[in-house]
Write a structure and sequence with these properties.
The protein is mostly helical. It has a domain of 42 residues. Helix content is 58%, strand content 0%. The chain contains three helices and no strands. The termini are far apart.
Length: 65
């Protein structure tokens, strides 16, 4: 599984130094990531609106017309 961000890569490097992960694991992730330019941090995905909220918004917009 490739790294998603530089922060994740730094964390794995720290775990490698502490001996919590094996060098093989770190190398595998590094290989799969390749030479890609990674963002410093990955933003969390936005939660989608619930169906009820979408229906209410649609009804309000129809009522205004």
């Amino acid at each position: 599984m490739p790294f998603k961000s530089q922060a994740q890569r730094r964390k794995f490097a720290q775990l490698l130094v502490e001996g919590k992960i094996s060098p093989q694991t770190f190398e595998e992730w590094n290989r799969e990531t390749g030479g890609r330019k990674l963002p410093d941090h990955v933003k969390p995905k936005r939660k989608t609106k619930s169906r009820k909220t979408k229906v209410k918004a649609r009804k309000k917009s129809r009522a205004k017309k």
